[in-house]
Design brief:
- By secondary structure, this protein is α+β, with helices and mostly antiparallel strands.
- The protein has two domains: 187 residues, Fructose-1,6-Bisphosphatase, Chain A, domain 1 (2-Layer Sandwich); 117 residues, D-Maltodextrin-Binding Protein, domain 2.
- Helix content is 29%, strand content 23%.
């Protein structure tokens, strides 16, 4: 049908997240719908947090709690607000038997021991930016449990390794709110339409450019970075690449995913094992970037998804983004193994 004055007001708005999930579920004859419902639960909590983020100043939920999380970081009011929203949505959804959150030291049991999935999450990444109206986000990683249904989930359900993720994604709260996820079959992006209360497919089959001209890191740690990192960054500057660093992992990652670039968080003397959390920050972003055609590594020989986890809140360095930029970094001298100790590259 051709577009005329009479029908321009009734153009299609696109496919909703819920309908997209249902269609994809129909492609798998043995699917039970549990994972689909779990993704919808996360999207629902994301809508609520979107509302909370947008009215934070009015609702007096900015500022600090006066407490610290398991990482020793000061908790913001909105951190705990998001934590409560996501935990509540996952408990009510009844598909999850346990949750691992950045805001809690121990596993959170949902009182649904028959649930087949566990979720590791950072309910609100970018806490330092909450009070200054800068983009922040939620990260999540989903596993099918390995302990018997009916029993209590244990740490083993969360320590399966990045390759065992069945789905992963993030929600970005910025100039628009986006839900980006993968189930191992490409990366899909959905934008929230507030007036309709729905996420609509806006970015199908996202692919990261193989090259980029953006580097993202905290250059305040310049003199604490390994020589190989400084050499790489100096080369970027000689090429007049753009230094872009927001300080919200999801926001920096999201920009580079679409525009091409590399995000770096090397080890430092203060954080010799790296600072970012492996299970609910690095694993989900690594799964997404690999599905989008990029790379996430800690050395020339070890991908993030191949790190064997040993702790629930384990930390790691991270180099992630466009394939050619990541390869230029880790192939340029020293490498960073999982321990965070620098060793000479084998070449």
């Amino acid at each position: 049908m051709s577009i005329t004055k009479e029908n321009t007001l009734a153009q299609p708005v696109g496919i909703t997240l819920e309908r997209y999930i249902m269609r994809k579920q129909a492609e798998f004859p043995f699917a039970t719908g549990e994972l689909s419902q779990l993704l919808r639960d996360l999207a629902l909590a994301g809508k609520i947090v979107h509302r909370d983020v947008n009215r934070a100043g009015l609702a007096d939920i900015t500022g600090g709690m006066g407490t610290q999380n398991v990482q020793g970081e000061n908790q913001k009011k909105l951190d705990m607000e998001a934590h409560i929203r996501f935990v509540r949505a996952l408990k009510n959804g009844r598909e999850t038997c346990a949750i691992l959150s950045e805001e809690e030291a121990e596993i959170i049991h949902t009182d649904n021991d028959s649930g087949n999935y566990v979720v590791a999450m950072d309910p609100l990444d970018g806490s330092s930016n909450i009070d200054v109206n800068v983009s922040i986000g939620t990260l999540f990683s989903i596993y099918r449990r390995i302990t018997p249904p009916g029993s209590k989930a244990t740490a083993a359900d969360f320590l399966q390794g990045g390759r065992r993720q069945v789905a992963a994604g993030y929600i970005l709260y910025g100039s628009s709110t986006m839900f980006v996820y993968t189930t191992g079959h490409g990366v899909m992006g959905f934008t929230y339409e507030q007036s309709l209360g729905e996420f609509f497919l806006s970015h199908p089959d996202i692919r990261v450019p193989q090259d980029g001209t953006i580097f993202s890191c905290n250059e305040g740690y310049w003199f604490d970075y390994p020589d190989s990192i400084r050499t790489f960054l100096m080369d970027c500057k000689r090429k007049e690449y753009s230094g872009r660093y927001i300080g919200s992992l999801v926001a920096d990652y999201h920009r580079n995913l679409f525009n091409g670039g590399i995000y770096l968080y090397p080890p430092t003397s203060k954080n010799p094992r790296g600072k970012l959390r492996l299970l609910y920050e690095c694993y989900p972003l690594a799964m997404l970037i690999e599905q989008a055609g990029g790379q996430a590594v800690i050395s020339a020989t070890e991908a993030i998804l191949d790190i064997v986890p040993t702790e629930l809140h384990q930390r790691t360095p991270l180099f992630i983004g466009s394939t050619n930029m990541v390869r230029a970094l880790v192939g340029a001298g020293e490498t960073v193994p999982a321990s965070g100790q620098l060793v000479a590259s084998a070449g």
